Amino acid sequence: MGAVGGEWGGAASGGKVGGGARTAVGGKGGDPVRQLRRAVFPLAPWVFAAPTVGFVTLPGLVHAGLVFTGIATAVVPGTGLLVQPLARRAAAHRHAAASIGLLAIASGLALAAWAAHTASQPWAMTAAVTLGAGYGFTLTHGLTQVAATAPPHQLARLTSYFWTAAYTGMFTPYAITLLTDNGPLTPPQTLTAAAALAAVTCVTHLRVRPGTITP
Asked: Which SUPFAM superfamilies does the protein's record reference (predicted)?
């Protein structure tokens, strides 16, 4: 996952994303922190929730061994890296990168629920690939929008806020374990609920109107 984040290090540390006008979700002008709080930070936890489900939670749910786990650990971030060219192009079109990413995450979680229900390793690997794609698109969207929205003197601080929000998603496997081991839900039910939540996040994100910030 560091490879994907590292590729965007330059964009998040100072220059404009793409050329010409820069698109900011949340409206023209105004407080950049407020803009990002409305349009970027709510989806940030999904950035790492998706891949950790793919290579931490799923292997155990389908009773996979170390080989499957190792392959999933490579496939998930690898897929995120492979979709970067598409994600960068999508990021130029308002909500496209975020919408594609969140829909991929919702689909991946639904596939993960089915894999857990059937204990199917092929379905689990399919879910892992889909979650990896969602990771790549949502990470690209988040870093692109932070770089486009934040004033130069606030860029480092707001980028750190985004990464902090994103890393909270790494608690997802632990939350799933708590809900299934000590709660009334089964793993497929928990993953289905997570898929629905990702879909709701996507719909909510589409309601935020983008604006334009000139460089």
From this structure: MFS general substrate transporter
- Per-residue pLDDT reduced to its tens digit, 42-89: 899 999 999 999 999 999 999 999 999 999 999 999 999 999 999 999
Q: Say how far apart CA 38 and CA 206 lie, in whole Å.
A: 11
What's the pLDDT at 30?
59
Domains and CATH numbers, the chain: 21-213 (1.20.1250.20)
Helix (H, G, I), strand (E, B) or coil at 182: coil
Does the pTM surpass 0.90? The reply is no
- CA geometry: angle at 17 spanning 168 and 5, to 5°? 35
Q: Which of 55, 35, 51, 156 is nearest to 101 (CA)?
A: 51
